[in-house]
Amino acid sequence: MIRVVIVDDEQATRNLLKQLFKDYFPDVQLIGEADDVASGVELLKKETPDLLLLDIQMPDGSGFDLLNQFRNPGFQLIFVTAFDKFALKAFDYNAIDYLLKPLDPKSLRKAIDKIHRNSDRALEPRLKGMMDMLETRQTQRIALSSAEGYAFYSLEEIVRLESSGGYTTFFVADGQRTTVAKTIKDYEELLPEDMFFRVHQSHIVALQYVRKFLKAENGQALMSDGCKIPVARRKKDKFIELLTKYTL
């Protein structure tokens, strides 16, 4: 059973979540709710939830203000938000779960299932990465959730990505690799366009780690780790253009 607390200033959102829990989630027990930051902090000091569903913008502050009151939170977290695009990117980069309003049972089920799988994963380092990113408005590192735990990499360390089915493997400069259960398209949309380029349906490369463009076999990118990555014919001209700009 997952013990849940909701902190959201919108009564309609809280009511919808409670109804969804009742109709679709017999494994969820709602143990409390609050409608602002102050009452949310007090509630979380009294209760010990497994999961906090947290709004970002509230009348007396933000969800981030609430989180700052808990140095080592013992709960998992899902933001419930209609927040700006950069904040959503910060969540993605740091493997922080979120639900976009208006809510629906399918997305809530997916988030709850993920909490089940990651119940033993520490939240604090991911929160710190998210807060740092929101403060600087810069994407500096990424958190990758795998079967073994979370791997944290600077964007500068990532050499390339390779997909297989619904999984993506990250290869980094020190030889490590991490496989995550997300598609390469998810990361194509997330990673900065001035640093990474999808050269093939199964490959994204970091431009700084491309050593040569080889004409053999319709075009290949020779990477710093020695791998030769195929370049799709329709991607070749754009890739060469980006490489030229990147090395100027």
From TrEMBL:
Keywords: DNA-binding, Phosphoprotein
Domain HTH LytTR-type residue range list: 142-245
Residues bearing PTM 4-aspartylphosphate: D55
Keyword NAD: no
Classification via InterPro entries: CheY-like_superfamily, LytR-like, LytTR_DNA-bd_dom, Sig_transdc_resp-reg_receiver
One Gene Ontology molecular-function label: DNA binding
Superkingdom of origin organism: Bacteria
Response regulatory domain span: 3-116
One Pfam family it belongs to: LytTR
UniProt xrefs under PROSITE patterns: HTH_LYTTR (PS50930), RESPONSE_REGULATORY (PS50110)
Transmembrane helix is among the record's keywords: no
Stated name of the protein: DNA-binding response regulator
Organism lineage string: Bacteria, Pseudomonadati, Bacteroidota, Saprospiria, Saprospirales
